Amino acid sequence: METLFVNQTLSRLDLSPKPKLPLSITPQPIHFPTTTATTHLKPNKNFAIFAVQNQEKNFQETGDTLQANNFNDEVDESYGEVSKIIGSRALPGGKGMEYLIEWKDGHAPSWVPEDFIAKDVVAEYETPWWTAAKKADDKALAELLAAEEDWRDVNAVDKDGRTALLFVSGLGSEPCVKILAEAGADIDHRDNAGGLTALHMAAGYIKPGVAKLLLDLGADPEVEDDRGLTPLALAKEILKVTPKGNPMQFGRRLGLESVIRILEDSVYEYAEVEAILEKRGKGENLEYLVKWKDGSDNEWVKAKFVAEDLVKDFEAGLEYAVAEGVVAKRMGDDGKNEYLVKWADLEEETWEPEENVDPDLIKEFEQGQLQGNNGSFFKDQILDAETEQIGGNGAVKNESSVDGS
Q1: 294 falls in which pLDDT band (50, 70, 90)?
Q2: Which of 171-180, 273-282, 340-349 is predicted most confidently?
Q3: Which of 128, 311, 317, 336 shows the smallest number of beta carbons within 10 Å?
Q4: Do 369 and 286 fall within a single domain?
């Protein structure tokens, strides 16, 4: 096997009898990763949306070289030959790799940056991993991760800072995603060729099943790429440039719409709206300022996410108030029930048609009537209401209460 240095004029590697690079061979625990904070970077105008059009071309390795200037400081008087690589780990930020080297002369294994290891030695170790990832071979990935003699980093990166999870997500392999996630893969890792995450890959390559699985595993749908696009924004942008009338693109559009629905469900939390307060914008940009029933802060929400009946009422000019309870009931002129409502922010009670009253308040009132727990006050209100109806058509109303005694 070739020696460690790429420079073929050096036949042996200078090592210290007591390596200064610490040995750390702790297998990574199996766990489902949690959502990390959203990363915001400046948009890269040179990154084209059509980068996701050709996966095979897009996934090819390019030649960024890891700078490892400090490695020479670690060498000393003795030399050793490489036996094999027995572990790997990615550098912070996905900037490269380093490998755990087993030495032929019995030195303790030590970590060495990839640029100081012969390319054929690295290729022998890495080729099975990346072949399995780019073919979405779940069995091969599982076997490599299960190898007892190998402390392989599931978050290993290629020259573009991409991990195996990004490849299998773009290929739409749910089994591979599950295997990598269970092995501790970073669900929100961003590559160095555009800031794409696995969720961006699933969205861009139209893999709704993988998109949903990644979200279930805790992927953050609001992580942005280098252009400032979330996976949802990326999917919408691709849909926008996908022809509508072309039968060949019909399946593609359906897939994108499915991805968009899945991502929207994860981004927008659905809550009960108490009232619409204002509106702004037009067309796709139309928004309503809504007041939530749970007391959350008022929020501008896209029109398509607001219930149609609330929008209809708002546009018709109806006003909203908070009801404390129903205190009386009567039959209206149209033969339908009306309820006397006590308001929290109004001094006067008002008669309202049944459709304008909260069904829960009506139910509470009716139950109270049946159980006789509402006292003579409610009874008087009902009789007063009936007297008012009888006293119509110009007759003098009887303003006195009738208690039935």
Answers
A1: confident
A2: 171-180
A3: 317
A4: no
Does residue 402 belong to any structural domain of this protein? Answer: no
* Listed residue (107, 110, 41) closest to 78, CA to CA: 107
Q: Is the pLDDT of residue 52 over 50?
A: no
397 lies in some domain: no
Q: What is the mean pLDDT of residues 268-273?
A: 70
| Helix, strand, or coil (residue 274) | strand
CA dihedral 393, 398, 403, 405 (to 10 degrees): -110
Angular region, 401: left φ>0, alpha ψ -120 to 50, beta rest: beta
Q: What is the pTM of this model?
A: 0.54
CB 323 within 8 A of CB 357: yes
Q: How many domains does the chain have?
A: 3
Neighbouring residues of 356: CB distance < 8 A, sequence distance ≥ 6: none
Give the CATH number of the domain where residue 346 resides.
2.40.50.40
Alpha helix stretches (DSSP H) within 135-197? 138-146, 164-171, 174-182
Rg for the chain, CA atoms, rounded:
34
Token readout for 369 is 């009537």
Residue of 236, 144, 233, 249 lying closest to 197 (CA atoms): 233
Which residues are CB-neighbours of 213 under 8 A, at least 6 positions away? 174, 177, 178
Tokens of 22: 């610490």
**Residue 279: strand, helix, or coil:** strand
Order of strands, sheet of 97-103, starting from the edge strand that comes earlier in the sequence: 82-90, 97-103, 110-113
Q: Which residues contact 61 (CB under 8 A, 6 or more apart)?
A: 158, 159, 160
* Residue 276 β-bridge partners: 290
Residue 389 is encoded by which pair of tokens?
């109806």
